[in-house]
Write a structure and sequence with these properties.
heterodimer, A: six-stranded mixed beta sheet, globular, B: mainly beta, seven-stranded mixed beta sheet, 11 strands, 56% strand
Chain lengths: 106, 126
């Protein structure tokens, strides 16, 4: 199975900061990488698919990059509503594992 | 608009079975698969498996293989996930999600889920 490692596991930031979360796959997953945001008590929300494709309706301050094994999610100019946990997920091969999550505290 | 509405919370005893439903609307049911993902209290997301709504093809995570069955009813646009021989570590919120998939290298690959149900809490306790 492909293991997905996210870092950091948590971070604290201020409104207006730029935040970067990294996700590393244990082997190449090409660009088959998704990012989800989950707020407390809510279902996950898809932010980015295929490593860098922003979903409709997602603010442009969210961006994704990377290919192969190393990926990043960047939130430029953090907003109060961005307080959440972020998960990466590989969809290159079975099982489509999630990373352990990164909790962002504002 | 796309909606996935799940059945309500369940409390089960160890060894019992649970069947969670996921009623969809707002899109053509057979155009997308359904993923099932669970989240134990305070933990991360765990993919359990998925089903193709067009032909019933399923793939299950090894951890639940043999205990889980995913099905669909295309007459009601509803997906179901049944988990048997419940254990305490099956206590979790269970989510269904619409999944985009493709067929490549001779196999199906679920790619990403853009719409999710509200979640169903399943508690396993004696």
């Amino acid at each position: 199975d492909i293991q997905m490692t996210q870092s950091p596991s948590s971070l604290s930031a201020s409104v207006g900061d730029s935040v970067t979360i990294t996700c590393r796959a244990s082997q190449t997953i090409r660009n088959y990488l998704n990012w989800y945001q989950q707020k407390a008590g809510k279902a996950p929300k898809l932010l980015i698919s295929a490593a860098s494709s922003l979903q409709s309706g997602v603010p442009s301050r969210f961006s994704g990059s990377g290919s192969g094994t190393d990926f990043t999610l960047t939130i430029s100019s953090l907003q109060p509503e961005d307080f959440a946990t972020y998960y990466c997920q590989q969809s290159f091969s079975y099982p489509p594992e999630f990373g352990g999550g990164t909790k962002v505290d504002i | 608009q796309v909606q996935l509405v799940q059945s309500g919370a369940e409390v089960k005893k160890p060894g019992a079975s649970v069947k969670v439903s996921c009623k969809t609307s707002g899109y053509t049911f057979t155009d997308h698969g359904i993923n099932w993902v669970r989240q134990a209290p305070g933990q991360g997301l765990e993919w359990m498996g998925w089903i193709s709504t067009s032909n019933g093809h399923t793939d299950y995570a090894q951890r639940v293989q043999g205990r889980v069955t995913m099905t669909t009813d295309t007459s009601t646009n509803t997906a179901y996930m049944e988990l048997r021989s419940l254990r305490s570590d099956d206590t979790a919120v269970y989510y269904c999600a619409r999944v985009y998939y493709d067929y490549i290298w001779g196999s199906y690959r679920p790619r990403y889920s853009d719409s999710w149900g509200q979640g169903t809490l399943v508690t396993v306790s004696s």
